[in-house]
Amino acid sequence: MSSTSSTTQVENTVLEQILTKLESLQINQGVLEAKIESLTTPTPTQQVPIPIPVPVKEAEKEKEKEKTLYPGRVLLTTYPSQHSISPYPLTWGSPTSSLRGPIICSRLPSTLPFRNAIGAHSGSYSIYRALSIALGTLDPRYKPDYTKTEPAVEALGVPCPSWSKIVSLDPWGHLVPVVFEKEMRDKENGGLGLDIRPSISITKAHIKLKEIDESVKRGELVVDGKIVMASEPLRMDDGSLVQGIDPGVEVNVSKAAVDPIWYLPGVAQRFGISESLLRRALFEDTGGMYPELITRPDIKVFLPPIGGLTVYVFGNPAYLRDPSKTLTLRVHDECNGSDVFGSDICTCKPYLVYAIEESIRTAQGKHPDQLTSPSPQPQPGVGVVIYFRKEGRALGEVTKYLVYNLRKRTGDSASRYFSSTELVAGVKDMRFQALMPDVLHWLGITKVDNLVSMSDMKYDAIVGSGIEVRKRYDIPSYLIPPDSQVEIDAKIASGYFSSGKQVTQEDLARTVGRRWEEVEH
């Protein structure tokens, strides 16, 4: 072989290797371009956010703001033996406020070492407080001034022996500025300067409901000038009377707002589980929001980020603690769709209004049981409606509407009422009424003459807590909207109270709600 041909062969081999390398580079380039395109080209289900450059000076300013608001390092949790940690003594269930001690969860510098509770005040609204601080509209060091905010009704929340049973609210919560005045007073004035806050407030109000106006017009309720009063005439801007419109009536009530405060050992015992399991579940299934549930077993009080309750009292609040007075009660769980907007798929609003009317009649001494009593002169009693924030059986409104969709798309039969909820939520009810009677014990109630409720769970919880229930009754059939008959029949079949109606499995299959197709939207 000549040297020329040998050289040519070598050159060809080198060229082939170069071409192979080039092809490989082209393939790699194509892959990279495809990856870049997939990252930069939005898909129908993915929107690529447009980066908004933050000026360096603006970013530095935000950092300085954060340091001003929170000058210390991030404190993820605390431990019992940690330096400077000294929880204020607290003995739950003590008969006096001084023996019990204040509940302290504030993270203000003056109070932080003395915290004896996990969580934050105001339940779910604590998130809005945090947002206000971040936006600069609220000073994180601000301590409220509670001058002239004391309870407007002295007969509500009077200390009584039944307070020792309470585990889900602070019975002293409405008296905090009074009974813990020294602890709250500034150090300059001889106090301890601690940030202690009320968890209950008590006030008075008039309520106006169109349904009550109609009941008065029909003669079912009477205007007595004390419980039910005629409203002021309506006037135009110039002061002249509005003609042709009845201003209706208004109802005089006392009311109390209550935030939940849990004594963890008592709550665990009430549910029949260990305190350790309760703490672990609360930590794990709130996304790890409260690590001190795990790291601070010495702290026994927790302020859960949930809605509270409101107490409405019709008549003299002192009668709540008087067993000789007739007492009518409804414990009502929130239903925004019905209570506020009148949705007819359930009986919540009709039942609530009916209970208010029964409470008014009892307060006026005009309840049927009072009128038929052997007493020559019917005596006024007291009515109470307790409104819990447990929307959609504590499953939430989003879950509730998803269940509505499933029901309406599958025939909305009473036989599938509870199973539809279980398919979506995994459980049919999460209200767990074991804690509910605590507010009744706070009010000093020892017996209920008229329980306006069909719920077997509520009845069992009340009676199980030691409160006598003399009579219970369901909603009158004429108040049940047609589309909510599904709910009523399903509840009766599952064990809810009914004064007369019995529902069989065959009845459940025949009871169906309104189909969407039956109504034009």
From TrEMBL:
The lineage's top-level taxon is Eukaryota
Q: Where is the GTP cyclohydrolase II domain?
A: 318-472
Looking at the record, the residues that make up the GTP cyclohydrolase N-terminal domain are: 73-285
Tell me which InterPro entries the record gives. GTP_CH_N (IPR022163), GTP_cyclohydro_II (IPR032677), RibA-like_sf (IPR036144)
Q: One matching Pfam family, short form?
A: GTP_cyclohydro2
The UniProt entry, under PANTHER family, shows:
PTHR47259, URACIL-REGULATED PROTEIN 1
Q: What NCBIfam families is this protein classified in?
A: PRK07198.1
Q: What is this protein called?
A: GTP cyclohydrolase N terminal-domain-containing protein
